[in-house]
Structure formats: C-alpha cells, structure tokens
Amino acid sequence: MKNWTDLWLGYHKVNVKKADELYSKSVGKVYLEGFLEDESICANAIKELTHGLKQMIKVSVKIISNAGGEIEEENAVVIKKDDSIKKQGYRYQDNGKRITISAPDENGMLYGVFALLRNVAMQKERKADELCEPSNPLRMLNHWDNMDGSIERGYSGESFFFKNGKIMTGSRIVDYARMIASVGINGVVINNVNVKGAATYLISERYYLNVKKLAEIFGSYGISLYLSLNFAAPIEMGGMDSCDPLDENVILWWKNKVWEVFNHIPNLGGFLVKADSEGRPGPFTYGRTQAEGANMLADIVKEYDATIIWRCFVYNCTQDWRDTKTDRARAAYDNFKPSDGNYHENVVLQIKNGPMDFQIREPVSPLFGALSSTNEMLEVQIAQEYTGHQIDICYLIPMFKEILNFRTYCKDECDTVADVVSGRTFGNTCCGFSAVTNTGDDENWTGNDMAAANLYGFGRLAFNTELSAEEIAREWVKLTFNVSKEAEDVIVNILMNSREIYEEYTSPLGIGWMVTPQTHYGCSVDGYEYSRWGTYHRADHLGIGVDRTENGTGYVSQYFEPNASIFADVNKCPEELVLFFHHLPYTHKLHSGKTLIQHIYDTHFEGYERVLEMQKNLEGIKDELDQSVYDRVSGRMNLQVANAREWCDQVNSYFYRKSGIEDEKGRKIY
Ligand code: GCU
C-alpha cells in the first residue's frame, strides 16, 4: 500500500452520464501509427491512458498497433507520428467522434495522451484543433535534496530520493515521474546545488547503479536526469591541490570523471553548477572568469550531448552595506554581462527571476535580454522559502506570469522574458524555464495541499507560457478535488488572491526581506543574516527604501531604456516596486493620495483581515473536502493567521515607532 496521494492524477470517477455522451464511445479503441506500443515512453503513455480511462469512465481500452492505411472506425482515438510538429509538441484534434493526437516524438505523444486524460477528467466539451508546441525547450525542476535525506528549503518532509546516504528507486519515483511528465516537465536535477561532503558525491562508483536506475525511470517518462556538481571535486574527491579550470591536470581529472559517469549513465542530461557563491568554490578563486569555469566543463561533456547549467546567483554575501554604493542587486549583471558571448553553445546560464532572492516582489533581473549571445534560463522558486514555507497559501503563477510578460527592451519586439528564455529572441535552442521545487516525502507531496497548485502550475506554464494563472488554477482544482462548481470557485479565489494578500501583510512596496534570518519564515524587520551592519530596507526616522538610481547604487542603469528611466523616476516607477528603487520619506504621497506610512498601516491591517476571510471561506467548503485534506490545509491556515497577525503587528509598530506618525484611522498599533 502506498502512503502518498495521486495529486492531480487521481482520475476521479466522472459524472458517467455526461461523460458517456462526451467521451466513452470514442475512446474504446486506440490506433497507433508510427509509435511502438512497447517503446518505453510510449508504453507508459498507453499504460496511463488505459488506467485513467478505466478509473474515470470505466472504459477498457483496446490498442491497435501499426494501424497504417485508412482507419475506418469513426469513433476512435488515433495516435500518429507527424514530423511537421515542433519537437516534443503535439496536435490535438477532436471532431466530436474521433480524437487524433499527432506528435513528432514520444514526448509529444505522451503529452498528447495526458491532454486527452485532462479533457476527460474536466469533461471538456468536444471539438478541438489545437497545436500545442512547448514554449521552452528545457522545462526543469531543481531539487535541493541532500544525501542524508534533508532538503534545503524543504517544507514538505524529507527527500524521496535520498535517505541516510542511500538512493531510493521505488514506486514513489515512478509516481513522481508520471506526475511531472503529465504537466510537461522534461528535466530534473535531483541533488542540492550546495554539494557538500565528498563522500556523498553522486559522481562516484557507489552511486552509479542507482543513479542509472533513476535516470531510466525518468527517461521512460521523457525526462532527463541532471546532477549538481561541486566545482572543487578535483580537490575534495580527487585529492588534488587545485580546481583551477585552466590547469591541465584539473581538466584531465574532469575528463576521466565525466567519461566514467557517462559510461555508467549514458542518458544523463548534464550538470548544474553553483560556483563562487555563499561559500561555494569556483573559478574566481583562481582569477578565472565564470565563462572559463563553465566552458571547461561544457567542452568535456559535449561529446556526450550534455549540457552545463551554470547559475548566475554569484554574489559576495559578506558585503558591507554601510557604503551606499554597495548593492547585492547588481551582482548577477556585474559578474555575467561582461562575458556575454564567451560561453560555449552547451552552456546555459540559469538566472534567478529577480536580482535578490525569490522575494514576494522584486523587479525582473536586468540580465534577461542583456545577454544577447548566451543561452539563458529563468529560475524561479516554488518552494516558498520567502513566501510562506508552504504553510501560508501563496499561489505563485500570477507572479511568474508578470515575470514572463516583462518587456526587457533588448529589441524592438519579441523582447519579453518569455521570448528571451524560449529562444525566440536570439534564436537559441538550449534555454528554458526551471523552478526550485516544493516536493518531499509528505503524504501529499507538498505539505500544504494547496501548494501543489504551484507545482502543477509551473509545469503547465513552462510548457505553455500563454496560459493564464486562473485557467491553470481552475484546471488544477478540477483535476485534484472532486468538488462542486461553488467549492471550485472558492478554491480558485483563494489561490488567485493569495499572492496579493501575502504581499500585503509582509514587506511593502518591493523592499523585500524583513524575515527571520536563516529560516526565512516570520517577521524580523531588521533581519539581516550576513553581518551586523546592514538592513535590507535602510529605514531611519524619516524614510525607507534603497536609492538605486544614479545618485544611489546605480543599479537602474543595468536596464535597457525606457525601463532604466522609468525605474529611476519616482513618479513613473511601478508603485509596487517604489521602495526597491527609491528611498522615500514616510510622508511621500502615493498615487492613491495616501502617504507611504499610511499605505504601510492600511495594507498590513487589510492583509490580516483578508487572511481571516480566506479562513472563513475555507471553512465554508469543509464538507466537500476529504477530511485529511481539510485537516492539513486548515491546520496550516491557523498558522498563517498567526503569522499574518505577527507581521502586521511587528511591521506597523516598527514604523510607527520609527516615524512617530499616527495611523489616520486611529487603530491600535501594538
Ligand atoms: C538562497 C537560499 C539558500 C540557497 C541559495 C541558492 O540564498 O537561502 O539556501 O542555497 O538561495 O539559490 O543557491
């Protein structure tokens, strides 16, 4: 008996009468043309189709392989090869009787099958002709799982890959692969970017067999496995005295190591590297550039068709912020822009969405679009490290939509972040979208059942960046819960408002942080973990915010025009980011006519009130949810209420004491 849920692949029994009219007659016979029933991905697609249809509408599927020629049967599913469709895409046609899925490869075929299952589960009206080609070539999940079973920034139990230094390869991995393949994920990094302790390196004999097993399981769902590497492996593992990327002996060590790895795990997708950051070693130690470090590895893995994913989260965490020119936000651009064009073709730079670190509100990183001759990948975090730890509900897809839609102005057109990372802007093929993921070995995978909407949503969005946040939320609710339309609306509403609410009761207007150092949950207005000097908000008794204009840190100039001028002008700067870019007096008038301090008071009181309302709405649908789901979600909701209260009180009283300005509405500030 497995002790984990099926998330959105529960295939609830659907309203049979309606489904009968809709799908049952058409899906009993499945003709395969150009795909082999026993090829691994294809076999899994058929298995899923058979299982899903049986569960939902009690149809036993008959597979007719090597169909060929004219298929006379009108009421049927036809799955056929079509090379005119973009790699990993599919076309879904439904004339009311016959459903045709055309795809150029097995991944596309698998995604087409999942689309059919989704449509049946949602009892979607028939008649369709949709070409669904992936927006992003790479659609990846990054696990920050450690070999001892712990997960860095993990809020849903322990790792399901590793336990006490061992790798697990059981049926939970298969279920996980199914789950993420169903939303179009095609790459997964299984271990933490902070690779520590040579004895636990996955690139060693003691692990190859099981890593190979994992790679095969994922491979059978069209997903490539990647591993995080420690750049200092030649020292820590090889006993050498250097890991200088230009040292011949170091290069030789890597060549041998990589040969060994691919000899055991031929279908490995490549490696992910975090270098020169937060204590991680890297090329800077030897006076080498990030490009020299990345290219050294990329040249070695090239013959295995593999990719080096190199993170741009490179900054000096011990900077002294008392100097007003010093600015961590500048780091990614300053470190990577000068070497644009120097990266080899199988290197992709993975860039965090904002210049800081996954805050509830940040501007988009100015590196997007600035690297016109380098492969770029967008990195977001669904693990909610700073956005509620999967305790507080925070549906992040609306935020990801804003990021993807941001115009970089790197060109006159086709210049949004979505365009850049999809490869459309500069013609790259090695690029895409990745997320630091939110799963663990909790029964429901994501701690808070509602947090699974972020996993589902990330995958769906990475595959199709045109989908709306609400469309995705609704799909997820329909597939996950077997509830009435009214309850569905309640959950969709909770999700759709949750990011705004979280932002209201936490840090205001783009300033970010104010979180408890190290844990990053709960309020600590002055919290700053790296030294005793800084605060992120730079508040004093007159005002708050960081001047990032030319008069301040100069960060704004990293953007293309007109973004640079817009952010630099306090009147034009999008208000939700105004404190990220400007230091303003508490009496500054916002567009609403309110003063800055009044805005802080109002949003914090309101944020808290809205959490209470959310709690009431959840209680209202109690009877429609499984008891276990309700218990988990409502238990966390109680914690969210307490958290919001705490934030509201701490932030308001801090700024009341700093500014000495009364709340206009005379509410009690503790
Ligand atoms: C954040 C996070 C770390 C993580 C780092 C990264 O700083 O707190 O735990 O290692 O991001 O993205 O590498």
List keywords for this structure.
670 residues, alpha/beta, Chitobiase, domain 2, TIM Barrel, Alpha-d-glucuronidase, C-terminal Domain, 8-stranded parallel beta barrel, 6-stranded mixed sheet, 18 helices, 11% strand, binds alpha-D-glucopyranuronic acid
CATH superfamily of the largest domain, please? Answer: Glycosidases
Strand order of the largest sheet: 7-10-11-12-13-14-15-16
Q: So what's the overall shape? A: globular
What is the architecture of the largest domain at the second tier of CATH? Alpha-Beta Barrel
The Rg value, from CA coordinates, equals 26 Å
- Termini separation (Å)? 51 Å
Largest sheet: 8 strands, parallel, barrel
The proportion of strand residues reads 5-15%
Question: Percent range for helical residues?
Answer: 25-40%
Q: Which small molecules are bound?
A: alpha-D-glucopyranuronic acid
Low-confidence stretches: none
Quote the CATH topology of the largest domain. TIM Barrel
> Can you count the beta strands?
18
Secondary-structure-derived class: alpha/beta
Total number of distinct structural domains: 3
Mean pLDDT: 95
CATH class of the largest domain: Alpha Beta
